[in-house]
């Protein structure tokens, strides 16, 4: 996270919410798009690839922006992430924290919860 923050010049933080398990608006939109495409498939529309899926979905909505991510882009991102994770160091007591803030490429700040005044800093 700290490396991505520095690489893309972004302020990044991570907040864990156990109740949502990562579900959110994006998941709901994805479900809606899948249902729209499924309904078209049920009336004999062919969908045999990601390109077909995007083509069908685009005809069914003008309010959701859809774009295909090609396998070459996925492979390039996967390689880059593998390189990042190969040198990633673990953080002690992650099960006890709620918020992580990237300070610098070699520093993160950890808190029990977002507004906590108590915090600890991890140096890599």
Automatic annotation (TrEMBL):
Superkingdom as given in the UniProt entry: Eukaryota
Entries under PANTHER family matching the protein: UBIQUITIN-LIKE PROTEASE FAMILY PROFILE DOMAIN-CONTAINING PROTEIN (PTHR46601:SF2), ULP_PROTEASE DOMAIN-CONTAINING PROTEIN (PTHR46601)
Official protein name in the record: Uncharacterized protein
Species this protein is from: Adineta steineri
Species lineage: Eukaryota, Metazoa, Spiralia, Gnathifera, Rotifera
